[in-house]
Amino acid sequence: MEDHDTGAGAPEVGVSRASPPSGGPSPSAGRPRQAGPQSGDGQAGDAQPQRGKARKRRKRRRGRKVFARDGLAVSAHLVAAGPPAVSIAAPSPLVAPPAPQPRPEQPIQRPPMQELPVFAALDLGTNNCRLLVAVPQRHGQFRVIDAFSRIVRLGEGLTANGHLSQAAMDRAVEALKICGDKLRNRKIKKARLIATEACRTADNGVEFLQRVEREAGLKLEIIDRQTEARLAVSGCGSLVERDTQGVVLFDIGGGSSEIALIDLTGQRSPRLANHIVSWTSLPVGVVSLAERFGGRTVTREIFAAMVEDVAVRLRSFDGRDRLSHVLASPKFHLLGTSGTVTTLAGVHLDLERYDRRRVDGLWMDRDSVDRMVEKLVGWDFQQRCANPCIGADRADLVLAGCAILEAIRAVWPSERLRVADRGLREGILSELMADDGVWRNSGRGRA
To answer: How would DSSP label each residue in 108-121?
Structure first.
């Protein structure tokens, strides 16, 4: 089961989409030869035997001269042109070509570009196993060079039983073996491999991670909820515009939902996470909520009950009023990063196939979100399965996610919601690169 709402199919995530060309013709390649007299150059009409040796010597000297000139042209245009396309003129058909000579000196080669450091981030959640491998680009940005995502449902049955099931662990280990192979095939400078709510709360979570280390060769760390909230914020920094005054960022996961209140009315820091004024982690996500209320057959009454369940939890969040001074401002908005909001965006765009490039960064107004939630609540299970942006893997979870979203919107009403197809992995990569100093001398910008 592959997870379609991921950066796995896109070469770049949260970065500049323009990449430098990998190569091109040398400025001297294919250049027409100048017309005019060419004394002793082996032309067809000049085949006198007594001058053959002189012609050969001049031909070899001219070949070396042209060769050196081409090499200089390549070095002058090293970055812009890429590897040169060198062509050697054919000898005259009436003059015997010189005997092959050993070439003690190789042509001027393009020196290898400085190898970019490679960073990796892995997030094993309650529902998904996701990996990103990336190299830094200009300040605050990176280019993804490898990715993997698969729905493993590690937390399946966790709410009822309190521990990870054998089948769920088997699915996760198989996915993690693929991630391990990908990581071992590259020279990784720094990596962070995390596990979240399922492993936090399961009574056999630690034992499961020991099995992962034995069988997949990966050592994962269980992060706390505050770290999870901070990483989600770090991963979405580039989607918060400079004139924004306040944001409520939420990450609806499989077993928990992280919410961070971000106040930007003061001086802006390069790291968005520095502006978190309040946060909470609700111990409820799409998997746990769907298991308690049912995900296949969801009536309007059941949906309302799910919304109220989340609303009760939010009412106990003491810091929820920390952005009351900007809620009425047009420069306040919600920012959602999860399969729930990306699914809503895909349905809103009526995509025939999920397209991350069109979804990530999309703005949806209040009426559009209302219509999409109403549409999904009105669909039965088979209709949800049939939608290409939902599919069978999410059909029993998407309404639980919508219920969490509706509870959040009721507490922090906003005219605008921005959709992010990014999150913890991108946050990990941003923090790893910033801490490593890869952007230190690349100019000012947001991390």
So the answer is: PPPPPPPPPP-EEE
